[in-house]
Amino acid sequence: MGLWRIRATVDDRPGFLSVLTASLALRKVNILSVQVHTTESGAVDDFLVEAPDGLSQADLADAVIRGRGRDAWIAPADVRGLIDEPTRVLALATKVLDGSASLEQALDSLLGDCDISWRSTGAGGFTATGMQLADPAGGMLYIRRPAPAFTPAEYARAQALVELTRAASRHTAA
C-alpha cells in the first residue's frame, strides 16, 4: 500500500463529498485523513490516502474525476502526513520560537514545497499560486507554489504563524 496526498475541488452541496469518497473506495483506497477548505469555487478537499500498490497517480486522478472532483492535485506522501494539522502547526511554531527553524523554513514546511523570497515593500494577500505576508523583521515575504492552489485556510495559517512570530519578537525585545 502506498500513501498519497490528493487535493480536489467538489461542489459544496450535500452528497458531493460522499460521491468522491465512494469513487475512491471502489478502488480500495482508504482515506486516512481529510481536511475541507471552503472556497468561492467549491469545497477543496485535502485527503491523505492509502492506496493499493498497483494504483497509479493516473488511476487516482480518474477516480477523482469519476467522483465529480475537479482541479485534482495528486502527489506521493509519507507517514509525516499522518500528524494532524493542529499538532503539526504547533510543532512548527515551537521550532520558530526556540530558534531551531527560521520563519521561512516553517512556512515552507507548513505550505509544502514552495519558493520564498523577500522584498522591501508590498501588500499582503494571496492568489492561487502565491501569497505575500508582512515579515516581522520588516519587508514582505513572497511565497510561490505552482500546485496545488493556495486556499484561504492555508493563507490564514501562514498569517497566524507570522503573527505569532511577530508577537514573540516584540515580547523578547521588551
TrEMBL record:
InterPro entries: ACT-like_dom_sf, ACT_dom. SUPFAM superfamilies: ACT-like (SSF55021). Residues 5-79 form the ACT domain. Signal peptide: none annotated. This is ACT domain-containing protein. The lineage of its organism: Bacteria, Bacillati, Actinomycetota, Actinomycetes, Micromonosporales.
